[in-house]
Structure formats: structure tokens, C-alpha cells
Amino acid sequence: MGTTLVMALVIGQETHIAHVGDSRAYHLTQDTITQLTTDHSLVERLIATGQISREEARYHPQSNVIYRTIGDKAKIEVDICTIRLEAGEWLLLCSDGLNSMVQDAQIHEIVTQATSPQNACAALIEAANTAGGEDNTSVIIVQPERLQ
Q: Which partner for 36 in 18, 25, 47, 100 could form a disulfide, CB atoms 3.0-4.6 Å apart?
């Protein structure tokens, strides 16, 4: 057995993201949502090679098969990226319980319309549960404040 991980270290406006498995990081602005991580999963490889569409992946019978985790091997390969996170933007870290149940456009709408990051997290978890809640859902949102 293994587990997945997505984590972030925010230093000023620089954000370093580490990721293993199919937990995800997203960067959101008022107008866009961008997935920063690439799932280490069978369906993600099938999408990358053009064998299935992203929509087909949502319902693929092997959508839960991941090939990189923490805990099943002595050595782990971790993907790392760095982004600049501006005031008023959001960094969303989540388990696959969110993105497997709620599409990116709805995630974007919920986050950008929420009155606070905490309210956005609660609304995202509620949306995942309402859509069927087939997996555990964890969500963290970071939003730098605007300096006066």
C-alpha cells in the first residue's frame, strides 16, 4: 500500500510544490484554473498518448490505478515545480476525492465566488459529497492577502 501527496512551501510570492500520485495542485486566478501537477496514473498516461479523452478518463474502470506513491518502494520520485503566487490568486491542493467528483470549471466557480478560503474549502467538499462522494476529500486553499 502507498499514499499520495501534494504539498506546498510558500515563501513570499514564490511557491514550491511537491507531488507524488494523483493528489493535485491548481493555480487559480479570477479568470483561469490551471492544473499544476500531472497525475501519476494509468488514465493520465492514456490521455497523454491519445488513447482516451479527459472526459472518458473520468469514467474509466481503472481510474484509481496509480503508478507512483509514497510507502510502497524504498526510493520515491517526486515531481517539483515553482510558481509565483500573486495577491488575490489562489493555490488549491486537493486529494482525488475532489477532482474525481467535481470538474475544474465548477471548482473554479466555487473558489472565486467564496467569501474566504475556508468557505471555499467547505463548499468544495460539499460539492464532492453531493456528486457522490466516492472517495475521501481533502482540500487546502492558500490565498495571499493584498498589501495595503
A: 25
71-106 pLDDT, tens digit each: 988 899 999 999 999 999 999 999 999 998 999 999
Question: Does 147 fall in a domain?
Answer: no
- Our count of domains for the chain comes to 1
The DSSP code sequence of 47-88 is HHTTSS-HHHHHT-TTTT-BS--BSSSSS---EEEEEE--TT
Sign of the Cα torsion 137, 64, 42, 71 reads positive
CA 2 to chain centre: 18
CA atoms within 13 A on the CB side of 53: 2
From residue 29, give the alpha-carbon distance in Å to each of 16, 108, 118, 122. 18, 9, 17, 19
Entry pTM = 0.91
**Kind and range of the H or E element at 94?**
strand 90-94
Query: Which residue matches cell numbers 493528489?
Result: 23
Q: How far apart are the C-alpha atoms of 29 and 49, rounded to whole Å?
A: 29
Encode pLDDT of 26-43 as tens digits.
999 999 999 999 999 999
136: containing domain? 5-142
